[in-house]
Specification:
The complex is a heterodimer of chains A (about 375) and B (about 260).
Chain A: E1 4-13, E2 16-26, E3 31-35, H1 42-50, E4 57-62, E5 65-66, E6 77-80, H2 92-102, H3 107-120, H4 136-148, E7 154-158, H5 166-183, E8 186-191, H6 194-200, E9 203-208, E10 211-216, H7 218-223, H8 228-233, E11 238-247, E12 252-256, E13 260-264, E14 277-282, E15 288-290, E16 300-311, E17 315-322, E18 327-333, E19 349-354, E20 359-363
Parallel strand pairs in A: 3-8, 3-9, 6-7, 7-8
Antiparallel strand pairs in A: 1-2, 1-4, 4-5, 9-10, 11-12, 11-14, 12-13, 14-20, 15-19, 16-17, 16-19, 17-18
Helix pairs in contact in A: 2-3, 2-4, 3-4
Chain B: H1 3-33, H2 49-56, H3 58-91, H4 96-106, H5 109-122, H6 129-153, H7 157-165, H8 170-199, H9 202-207, H10 215-223, H11 229-252
Helix pairs in contact in B: 1-11, 2-11, 3-6, 3-8, 3-10, 4-6, 6-8, 7-8, 8-11
Classes of the chains: A alpha+beta (about 375), B mainly alpha (about 260).
């Protein structure tokens, strides 16, 4: 049985529907992420799980128990806030002891459990410090230790890494994965950062305008997005309007506007629906670029010239204008064999191409 | 000289003028309280005489005692009520409460005095220390509420939510997290209420009745004849008390005076 069941939950603020008939089922031990742009309803949903807000309709069940009307302090759910919300007038140890005291933990047990929690997040020896004496990363760990010290059923994390710099964020991502594995608490993680979601989660629910657009494992979300929104939101993507011409067993033959015939994969439902309009989603890193491509490399090939490029250290992103006027983004790793600096200049005649399974057809 | 510097000098000039206007009269009062003369006209010589007169003046001492008692009791009550009102105004977006709380601050004191007098007479409350205390509570609550609310407005909302989230009932969340964090505001409000109570004249004048008298009323009745050096002496002591309160406030909550 699922640990958390969200059944048809809707929340309105005036005319604005923040969460629109969302249903989700989250298993025990899972690292589950709610991903979406700001205003997509992910934080509102999280607040309803925590008990700070109530659904207008639908219900939330934790461990089979209906949570309607249950105040936050009576839910076996803790939250790590974006601002960390450490109590500034309490030391690190007092902060971590707070949930234990509230739960009526015997005084003799508090100190050892606080030490254990400090150990879990590698902050031993920091117990007498005040929050303002800690760095951003240390505050983050105290917030985690405090939320986990009395082992809740569910831990909610509201963009907990947003305030950290890029290097530290990466380090904390790894620590979060390890911590979650070690203690086995179910995580529900809210973020607008798609890379973070892909890196951390077992499953991701991509939200847009209060609805769940797609719920899948990270690999599926990335390689087989189900809608134009998901393809666009997760990673870089060429989105090209097209029409289905014919379909085979494994691939679809598409007519892409301003480009021509392309073979691509698609959902089962698109098979045999000739004439249907849709979008071809094509990841830049799946497109090859060279002066001359052979059919063995790429079954879909087009000639064009380099319009512009963006050098980002590990990769270079080329913008290629294909004959016919269509522009495509093509990503080339800078460690490709024989590469020292950049390969192509704007104006160079090149060929771009990709395999049949690189492109993915999305129905409108 | 650039225009900006000219304006800068002008501003400094105005500031000096303003401070002179504020503090020189106070310094004159202090100086004359040590003047060995019955008249506040010219400096004759140093004396402790007026303080001896003051401490032998039983009426004056009784009035001072009343003022302190009323100040302590009314500011304590006003602080509790004002803190609750400030919290309510912050926590729930109420429309009527802020108006109800702020209006007494804006109403002319003379009107408050007259209306409270009528109210006490109608309710059959005998005029004296109790009526004065009640009146002082009434006009101090609003000030405390506003100070506390501004303190709450500067507080991270998620702190209270975090307390609830970690298992605290609404009351424990308030007592263990919210209250300690707004304490500088509460103390500032309490001191403000005490100061307002100690030196209130107009409202007290209406609701005091015949027997009870406070320091401002006593001083007023004395200067009806002339400003005697004894009044200078009692004023000096009052200033000293105020200064002491400011120092205490700064010690107890370093942020309170800077509005942190």
């Amino acid at each position: 049985m699922a640990l958390l069941e969200i059944r048809d939950v809707t929340r309105r603020f005036g005319d604005f529907v923040a969460v629109d008939a969302v249903s989700l089922s989250i298993d025990a031990g899972e690292f589950f992420t709610l991903l979406g742009p700001s205003g997509c309803g992910k934080t509102t949903l999280l607040r309803m799980i925590a008990g700070f807000d109530q659904p207008d309709s639908g219900r939330i069940e934790l461990d089979g128990r209906d949570m309607t009307g249950v105040p936050p302090e009576e839910r076996n759910v803790h939250t790590v806030f974006q601002s960390y919300a450490l109590f500034p007038h309490m030391t690190v140890a007092q902060n971590i002891a707070f949930p234990l005291r509230m739960a009526g933990c015997p005084a003799a047990d508090v100190a050892p459990r606080v030490q254990e929690a400090l150990d879990d997040v590698s902050l031993v020896g920091m117990d007498r410090r005040f929050p303002h004496e800690l760095s951003g990363g240390q505050r983050q760990r105290v917030a985690l230790a405090r939320a986990l010290v009395n082992r809740p059923k569910l831990l909610l994390l509201d963009e907990p890494l947003a305030a950290l710099d890029a290097k530290l964020r990466e380090k904390m991502q790894l620590e979060l994965i390890t911590l979650q594995k070690e203690i086995g608490v179910t995580f529900v993680y809210v973020t607008h950062d798609q890379e973070e979601a892909l890196a951390l989660s077992h499953r991701i629910a991509v939200m847009n305008k209060g609805r769940v657009e797609q719920l899948d494992q990270p690999q599926t979300i990335y390689s087989a997005p189900r809608s134009r929104f998901v393809a666009d939101f997760i990673g870089e993507c060429n989105l090209l309007d097209c029409t289905v011409q014919s379909s085979g067993d494994a691939t679809l033959q598409l007519d892409v506007d301003g480009l021509g015939g392309v073979r691509a994969t698609g959902p089962d439902t698109a098979k045999g629906r000739t004439g249907q309009r849709g979008t071809l989603a094509l990841r830049p890193e799946k497109v090859s670029i060279a002066r001359e491509l052979t059919a063995a490399d790429c079954t879909n090939r087009f000639a064009g010239k380099v319009f512009d490029y963006l050098y980002t250290g590990d990769v270079t992103l080329y913008i290629v204008e294909v004959d016919g006027g269509r522009r495509l983004e093509v990503m080339l790793p800078n460690n490709a064999v024989g590469r020292s600096s950049k390969f192509f200049e704007p104006g160079d005649a090149v060929q771009v191409g990709w395999r049949d399974d690189a492109g993915h057809f999305l129905e409108d | 000289m650039t225009p900006a510097r000219g304006i800068g000098r002008l501003a400094v000039g105005f500031a000096i003028f303003g401070y002179v206007f504020l503090y020189v009269p106070l310094l004159i009062v202090i100086a004359y309280s040590f003047n060995d003369s019955r008249l506040n006209a010219e400096w004759v010589g140093f004396t402790w005489h007026w303080y001896e007169v003051l401490f032998a003046d039983e009426q004056m001492l009784a009035a001072a005692g009343n003022s302190l008692l009323i100040g302590v009791v009314s500011s304590a009550i006003a602080t509790v009520l004002g803190t609750l009102a400030g919290y309510a105004m912050h926590r729930w977006r109420l429309r009527l409460l802020p108006i109800l709380v702020v209006t007494p601050i804006a109403i002319p004191e003379i009107l408050t005095g007259v209306s409270l007098l009528l109210f006490f007479v109608v309710c059959n409350v005998s005029l004296g220390l109790v009526s004065i205390t009640l009146a002082h509570v009434a006009f101090c609550v609003g000030f405390v509420a506003i100070v506390v609310r501004s303190r709450l407005a500067g507080m991270d909302e998620s702190l209270t939510e975090a307390a609830r989230d970690l298992g605290a009932s609404p009351w424990r969340a308030f007592r263990l997290v919210t209250l300690p964090l707004i304490m500088p505001g509460v103390i500032a409000g309490a001191l403000m209420a005490f100061t307002l109570s100690i030196d209130d004249f107009v409202i007290t004048f209406f609701v005091a009745g015949v027997d009870a008298t406070t320091l401002p009323l006593q001083i007023y009745s004395m200067i009806k004849i002339a400003v005697t050096p004894e009044v200078n002496a009692v004023s000096t002591l009052l200033m000293l008390l105020t200064l002491l309160l400011i120092v205490v406030a700064a010690r107890v909550s370093p942020g309170a005076l800077r509005g942190e």
